[in-house]
Design brief:
Structural class: alpha+beta
Oligomer: single chain
Shape: elongated
Number of helices: 15
Number of strands: 11
Largest sheet: 7 strands, antiparallel
Distance between the termini: 68 Å
Radius of gyration: 32 Å
């Protein structure tokens, strides 16, 4: 039997002894294997861990040093070595081993956290923040860490938050004379200081490239808002008359077919807690509603709404029941902007798009990009009613709108059907 075969047999016998929990046999087999080949990382790691459990940290550190020399690309071996060196009080050696672990794997979160804590304890705040920042960026929030590392992760988050708060206060003071700041620059400051993240457009369907991801569009991009808002009382009165004549005529906005994945919509699927009455859906008029709302219909027909046959516009009364929440979701395409006009808005209602939160106000319109994650809630004891309509994304030129319309018509002809942009 060759030396290599003998070593393989001894390691196999050590594994069998580990299964039995026979530590004496494990030690004997591993020592025999190391006598033939002194550079066996697995054997060295086990023997070093055994020495550490005995409290012989000097022996453990020495054996871990042999293990990292045998396999310098194994970050866990470096981390184990660092822990033995910490127990010996050899801080310089510990730091070097943590750095060795990160040289083996720069994304090894335990070593990042531990080295950040090491730097913080030494007063090297800038270096600590660098390690903490990388570690937290790599660490999913739901990750379960061992208690010691969990405590360091908590400290890392607190340290990053304090640093970001100090930076935010400094920038706010330095930029106060520049107020109001350009929106994009304000979002940059929020991102740099950790006050808010940069939210990206994530269309579920058609994604028009290079359009800016803007949570709430500027009112100046919608010259017709004044006309829409001035008709609020008329629109609300027509809705109330419609409701009085047929109080149960709402249809659920969320209505998945059997077998379709409902995901976050399970609670609202086929529920009138989020009920709607369409004046138009996918560009198709609903005479039973339009005829009862003649002034609202006439106004909508005058407005420059999105117009893609089989796709839009949509125009509907959206009724959110008391104590109801619309879960976070994204819409179908960034070709459009979604416009809301508040009609009946009790206290306790709110709307979030990305990192921006607004409350509806009766008689006030706003437009947003629904391909950025958004959600809504009604925490009051009364229904909330909003008129929702589709408009073109204001970043599209008239020529781009015409070309996009032609593209959608061709796509739908190719597939012999139009895909609704108004499904949850």
């Amino acid at each position: 039997m060759t030396d290599a075969e003998t070593v393989e047999r001894l390691l196999g016998e050590a594994d069998a002894a580990m299964t039995r929990g026979d530590t004496v046999a494990i030690h004997r087999h591993l020592e025999a294997a190391l006598a033939i080949n002194p550079a066996l990382p697995k054997a060295l790691n086990w023997l070093a861990m055994a020495a550490q459990r005995r409290g012989d940290f000097a022996a453990a550190a020495a054996i871990f040093a042999r293990a990292t020399a045998a396999d310098p690309g194994a970050p866990q071996l470096w981390l184990n070595r660092a822990m033995a060196e910490r127990a010996l009080g050899d801080s310089d050696a510990e730091f070097a081993s943590l750095t060795g672990a990160l040289a083996a794997d720069p994304n090894f979160v335990p070593a990042r956290l531990l080295r950040g804590a090491f730097e913080q304890a030494r007063g090297n705040t800038t270096a600590a923040l660098a390690d903490y920042g990388l570690a937290l960026a790599l660490l999913p929030p739901e990750t379960q860490l061992p208690q010691g590392l969990a405590d360091i992760a908590t400290r890392a988050r607190a340290t990053m938050a304090a640093s970001n708060a100090a930076l935010a206060a400094r920038l706010d003071a330095e930029l106060a004379a520049e107020a109001p700041l350009p929106r994009r620059f304000e979002r940059l400051v929020d991102s740099v200081t950790g006050r808010n993240r940069v939210w990206r457009s994530q269309p579920a369907g058609i994604d028009y490239p290079e359009l800016p991801a803007i949570e709430f569009f500027d009112r100046e991009s919608f010259a017709w808002f004044a006309e829409l808002e001035s008709a609020t009382a008329v629109i609300r009165d027509e809705y109330l008359a419609l409701f009085a004549d047929a109080p149960d005529a709402d249809e659920p906005y969320v209505a998945y077919q059997p077998g379709e994945p409902v995901n976050q919509w399970a609670e609202l699927n086929h529920s009138k807690r989020w009920g709607v009455r369409f004046l138009m859906r996918d560009g198709v008029p609903r005479p039973e509603v339009r005829d009862r709302c003649p002034q609202t219909t006439a106004l909508l027909d005058r407005l420059p709404l999105l117009d893609v046959p089989g796709r839009g516009p949509a125009a509907f009364f959206s009724v959110l029941a008391p104590r109801t929440r619309i879960p976070a979701h994204t819409g179908s395409t960034n070709l459009r902007a979604i416009v809301h006009l508040g009609l009946i808005v009790p206290d306790g209602c709110g709307f979030r798009v990305g990192g921006a939160v607004r409350q509806w106000r009766e008689g006030e319109a706003f437009a947003f990009d629904d391909t950025i994650e958004h959600e809504a809630w009604n925490d009051s004891d009364m229904p909330r009613v909003v008129l929702i309509i589709d408009s073109w994304n204001p970043a599209l030129s008239p020529r781009e709108r015409n070309l996009a319309r032609r593209l959608m018509i061709s796509l739908d002809a190719q597939h012999d059907r139009a895909v609704s942009w108004n499904d949850a």
